[in-house]
Design a protein that fits this description.
Elements (H helix, E strand, L loop, with lengths): L1 H9 L6 H31 L9 H31 L10
Helix pairs in contact: 2-3
């Protein structure tokens, strides 16, 4: 048991594909949870000026708008990064001394 964990740690190319897929899925879940936490914190700070037993219509509208803008902005950034990565040539030359 010890040798299999140390061998997979030493050679990442020999990781079990199912384990690698599981790790990728869990990493995506973690990123999504971080994004939701970030959005919740941002929108709470922006929209909750009065604490009470229920949301008034202004705060509710603010939350909806905030969440929509957060999602739009995140999607815009992801699309821009994808475009940037696709347009960059693969760097295969070595840097001059």
């Amino acid at each position: 048991m010890e040798s299999s964990s140390s061998s997979s740690a030493a050679g990442l190319g020999s990781v079990d594909p199912q384990l690698q897929h599981f790790i990728e899925v869990e990493t995506q879940k973690q990123r999504f949870q971080q994004l939701v936490h970030q959005m919740t914190e941002l929108c709470w700070e922006k929209c909750m000026d009065k604490h009470g037993p229920k949301l008034d219509s202004r705060a509710e509208a603010c939350f909806v708008n905030c969440v929509e803008r957060f999602i739009d902005t995140s999607q815009f950034i992801l699309n821009r990064l994808e475009q940037t990565q696709k347009s960059k040539p693969v760097f295969s030359e070595s840097l001059p001394d």
